[in-house]
C-alpha cells in the first residue's frame, strides 16, 4: 500500500532534519512580486507553508509585517533561528492549516496579503483558498507560487499543480498569472475578489 504522508509533520520534520531546502528566492521573484502585488511598507502578510523562512525574510525586507506558518516544528525552529538578526517585523509559528483551530492572530478580514510558495500542491486547495479570502481584507491579495505539473520531471510531479488545477484555483476571481522562471516551470498567481 502506498501511503501519502505529505500531510504529516513527521514527513516534513524528517526532510528538514536532513537539511532539506527548496528553490532559492531570486531577485526576479521579489521584483515581480513587488510590482504585481504593489506592496506598501507596513502591509500585513501571512505566509503559509513558510519552511525555513527564506521567502518570509524577503517579504520582511520589503518593509512588510510578516507571520510565517508551517506544520513542521523543525522548519519553524530553523526559521526562527535564522531570523535572530534583525529582519524587521517578522515572526514564525507552528500550525497545520488543516487543523481545526486557527491561530489567534488570524481573525477575518485582518490581512493584506496571503502568500503560499511551493506549498499549495500539498494542501486542501479548496479549503485553503476559502480560508485565505476569509482572512484577507476586502481587496486583499492571495499570492501563490507553484510548480506546474506538466513541466516537471516524473519524480517531481507531486510538487506541482496541473494546468486544470491552476485554472480551478482562479475561478470567479481576478487573476494575474506570470512566469517566475525562464522555463515557465514555476508559475505565479495574484488573485483578488472582483471589485
Ligand atoms: C516544498 S516546501 C516549501 C517551503 C517554503 N515555502 C519554500 O518556498 O522554501 C512545503 C512546505 O509546506 C509545509 N506544509 C505542508 N503541509 C502543510 C500544512 N497542512 N500546514 C502548514 N504547512 C504545511 C511543509 O512543512 C513545507 O515546509
TrEMBL record:
The answer to whether the entry has keyword Transferase is yes
Domain (Methyltransferase): residue spans on this chain:
45-140
Which CDD domains does the annotation name? Answer: AdoMet_MTases (cd02440)
Q: Any stretches that span the bilayer, and where are they?
A: none
The protein's UniProt keywords, in alphabetical order, are:
Methyltransferase, Transferase
Q: List, alphabetically, the InterPro entries matched.
A: Methyltransf_25, SAM-dependent_MTases_sf
Top-level taxon of origin? Bacteria
State the SUPFAM superfamilies in the record.
Answer: S-adenosyl-L-methionine-dependent methyltransferases
Q: Name one Pfam family in it.
A: Methyltransf_25
Q: Does the keyword Lipid metabolism apply?
A: no
Q: What is this protein called?
A: Methyltransferase domain-containing protein
